[in-house]
Amino acid sequence: MPLYSSQPLKIYNSLSGEKEDFKPIHEGNVGMYVCGPTVYSNVHLGNVRTFMSFDVIFRYFLHLDYKVRYVRNITDVGHIVDDVDEGEDKIAKKARLEQLEPMEVVQRYTVDFHNILKAFNFLPPSIEPTATGHIIEQIEIIKKIIDKGIAYVANGSVYFDVVKYNETNNYGILSGRNIDDMLANTRDLDGQSDKRNPQDFALWKKAEPEHIMRWPSPWSDGFPGWHLECTAMSTKYLGNHFDIHGGGMDLKFPHHECEIAQNEACTGQAPVNYWMHANMLTLNGKKMAKSTGNNILPGEILSGDNNILSKPFSASVTRFFMLQAHYRSILDFSDDAIVAAEKGYKRLMEALDALPNITAGNSSSIDFAAWKQLCYDAMNDDFNTPILIAQLFEAVRYINLLKDGKETISADDLADFKKAVNAFVFDVLGLNDDKAADGDSDKLEGVVNMLIKMRNQARADKNFALSDQIRDQLIALGIQLKDGKEGTTFSIQ
């Protein structure tokens, strides 16, 4: 019997504002779409927190024996700088500033995104579609919405008619906004826009002559609107009606609101049963912003190359820190907070190291089955990772008591306890044991130092071909050598 049969799950639905029993459309299967990054810059720490929240959700569904199709897109065109259909595409702007092809920008920052998520031990999604790979699907959706009379063409661009849509639907159903209030509080267009109403949004934008990224369409050479991309990709891979749509809190309006409108206009039905939103990350009590310098990149945490933290911190410690707050809560990142998290993480790992050495007795003096159910109760309550972590520290206490002979555990309970602890720590929370990684690092350092000695000997023997070969092959592996007065050192790129 699958585990989900005995572990009923509640999810906070942003659409209703309440926790609801999770009932998948198809029993035993979960379809989940999460809005991915716009790849015009390095992935920032707030993005990592959002994607980490959904990584844990994905992991827990898998742990419960659900078959999951997890779709997380890459936005590689169409995200306008000011998000209100005016200005320049973010990727095209970056390409112009750096004198690169747009797809060079996309490739660079997609690789960065994947490398960072791999470092933080994320599971890859089932499908990772790109916006540029689904232009045809987006054009077809636009045609359907125009045919329904809920979109109009203006000077080669196509806009979604929010006022017309709202005659039979509710634009604002997700964010709780009232369209009359929105219209009343928006400045007049003063003839400067092709839109009929300020709240209308672009489905297709006609490309100006200097615009690099463009595709042919029935209306103009142009590019799709940002909101449309997710509608096309989510419905293609999950169907017109699927279980879960997730993203950052900042996407609730207008992005997700517009997705709902597009889907309902096109298909006549609500697209998603459960809308989930992860909250923001602050730094030292303030909003993260590159412009103010109150910002830190994930890689800078790992390397220690920053002016904010007292030392480098591992990906597992950073991950553990983030999961100590519920995904719907604002989390403040600071040196004091992550130092405290590191101490807790080490306590947990030390207990796990001691667990294999626990010996079984004839009976159990602790109700370990009840403890395990409390772990499930935490995750079944809208994926409450801080409560789960609290229960894991209760397990740490049990391990220490068992180690000191102050409590006993039967053989069956010990096997079940070990399995449960490891499942929640490594499979569900996605933590790694840094000590194992440190051991690998020590071995790597030893091998590289041996090669450095061989290179130095080759140079002394004037065998420069061998010396250069060692250096070049290390560079190919991402290991950079640096010759200095104190000798040769290396860094991993």
TrEMBL record:
InterPro entries, from UniProt?
A: Cys-tRNA-ligase, Cys-tRNA-synt_Ia_DALR, Cys-tRNA/MSH_ligase, Rossmann-like_a/b/a_fold, tRNA-synt_1_cat_dom, tRNAsynth_Ia_anticodon-bd
Which Gene3D superfamilies has this protein been placed in?
Cysteine-tRNA ligase, C-terminal anti-codon recognition domain, HUPs
Which SUPFAM superfamilies has this protein been placed in? Anticodon-binding domain of a subclass of class I aminoacyl-tRNA synthetases, Nucleotidylyl transferase
Annotated positions binding Zn(2+) = C35, C230, H255, E259
| Reactions this protein catalyses | tRNA(Cys) + L-cysteine + ATP = L-cysteinyl-tRNA(Cys) + AMP + diphosphate
Judging by the UniProt lineage, the source's domain of life is Bacteria
Q: Where is this motif: 'KMSKS' region?
A: 287-291
List localization entries: Cytoplasm
Stored Pfam families: DALR_2, tRNA-synt_1e
Textual note on the cofactor = Binds 1 zinc ion per subunit.
Q: Which parts of the sequence form the motif 'HIGH' region?
A: 37-47
Which of UniProt's keywords are assigned here? Aminoacyl-tRNA synthetase, ATP-binding, Cytoplasm, Ligase, Metal-binding, Nucleotide-binding, Protein biosynthesis, Zinc
Q: What is its EC number?
A: 6.1.1.16
Provide the Cysteinyl-tRNA synthetase class Ia DALR domain boundaries: 374-437
Q: Which NCBIfam families match?
A: cysS
Subunit structure comment from the entry = Monomer.
> What protein am I looking at?
Cysteine--tRNA ligase
Species the sequence originates in: Flavobacterium anhuiense
